[in-house]
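User: Here's a protein and a ligand (zinc ion). What would the complex look like?
Assistant: Let me lay out the input and then the predicted complex.
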Amino acid sequence: MERVAGWFYDGRRFREGTVGWEEDLILEVRPGRARNPLATGLIIPGLWNAHTHLGDAVVTQELTGTLEELVAPPHGLKHRILAKAKDDAIIGAMRRAMATMLRTGTTGFSDFREGGLKGLKLLYAAVAAMPLQGVALGRPMALEYDAREVSAILRASDGIAVSAYVDWPEDAIQKLAAHVRREKKMFAIHCSERIREDIDKVLDLSPAFLIHMVHATDADLTRCADAAVPIVLCPRSNAFFGMTPDIPRMILSGVRLLLGTDNAMINVPSMLREIEFAYRVARMNGGATARAIFEMALRGRRLADPDRSGAIRVGERADLVVFDLPGGSSGFASLMRASASDVSLVVAGGRMWPAESAGIPKSKRRRRS
Ligand SMILES: [Zn+2]
């Protein structure tokens, strides 16, 4: 068995002890520090990036212009560049973004993949060698409903995710969402990002989750809370376009909140940076606790499996991040300031990443038990 020791997150607070795993499962969680652990420090479950567009990593130029000019389909800059980019360039860019996620403590992500069925295939090619868990949500090539295309995308994905209700002809997006529902897959959509949208029409699509809701009213947020539809916040992305989500107001509404990094051309997909920024943005509106922000960065784990917890427990998947940071009652505050250089070990599905820079001797890396 492999072991780490220090202060681990038990779902409520940080406790001092030892966490051990074999293969991809946590099999030991106990008080007291093991002798010779692989790493020592603050131990958390792998973070979950609940909203990415990893393909956008292929766009590397400095960005100027509005939200519509940069990301709106079908003519926004990202769509023009993605349409022209070579497959290998997109795969390589996504792979770099995935390596960044792992190095910064993220072991799972939910991606909005553009480019229809082929776009999904590029995502799978990029993630193939990585120990990341992904929720892959595809979308039709055009803003129109074609039953055959949607069936093909659904067979190859966890569901469908689109830009925004206002971008689509009403009839087409309703047919699209109904089709996803019939196949019992996930439907997700950006909402109230640049303008307030009609929440009832959007909730009628039975989304698994919404992104942004920056322009939502209190009543809109309550509707989401009542419908048990979570909202993924991407405050760095919003700030790039001159907006900030009112995080304390959203927490008060009772809606379940998650955190994501959005377009990889706008933000590096580091959840540590998103956590730090979200904490600051929350302070602009009265503040949220460090624990509340931290949990937003874990909650996405349940997108992949509703039975998963955001805690380090026996039987959970061995997704662990060890930071060289103070634990105890300072654990949550430490995480609000954490950067990539504080990460001393990432374990994703039982695999260490990257084994070389974790300072683990080769003999130990290969050892199975
Ligand atoms: Zn997005």
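Summary: The chain has 15 helices and 16 strands.
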